Amino acid sequence: MSGIINFLKTLGVYASAGPDFRWGFNGHIRFKNTVNTDATTTALTWTTAYLLGGLLVRDPTGGTATDTTPTAVAIVKALGNGVVVGSCFDLFVKHTGSAGEDVTVAGGDSVTLSPTTIKVDGGEVLHLRFVITNVVTPAITVYSLGVQVLTSP
Q1: Which of 105, 68, 93 is CA-nearest to residue 153?
Q2: CATH class of 31-149
Q3: What are phi and psi of 18, to 5 degrees?
């Protein structure tokens, strides 16, 4: 059995144990999706569970807010075994609040945003891609892949 596992590793395939059972191939990480919801009215630091869950439903409840990603060290640690430069995962942020209640994304330590200002307004869904750029000294670039307007938040 260990021979098969070692062979799969040479191909870039890996799996991690529970509780979330992540699978990966050539750096693209797949995991069990979880919907997380947060209605914090002030600044919020996202957890690694929020990121790895794949969908964050967010409503700053009547105001604007700045949400900060976890640090690159925390994110790489949460990804576990098999993380390599180029590993990536996506997060969707569904903003269920009202128009004008912007949520601005800020990068945690060693997390770079591209573009440097990323915002999502009420009634929109933001698509983010997190790409590992260094695993020895953890670093991540978060790319905004666009915003979609919801027809019904």
Answers
A1: 93
A2: mainly beta
A3: -60, 170
Round the average pLDDT of the chain to a whole number and report it.
83
User: In terms of pLDDT, which residue wins out, 42 or 121?
Assistant: 121
How much is the pLDDT for 30? 52
Q: Break the chain into its structural domains and give their ranges.
A: 31-149
- C-alpha distance from residue 139 to each of 10, 25, 93 (Å): 24, 20, 22
Q: Which residue has the higher pLDDT, 124 or 80?
A: 124
- Is beta strand 118-120 parallel, antiparallel or unpaired with respect to 103-106? antiparallel
**SS (HEC) of 82-136:** CCCCCCEEEEEEEECCCCCCCEEEECCCCEEEECCCEEECCCEEEEEEEEEEECC
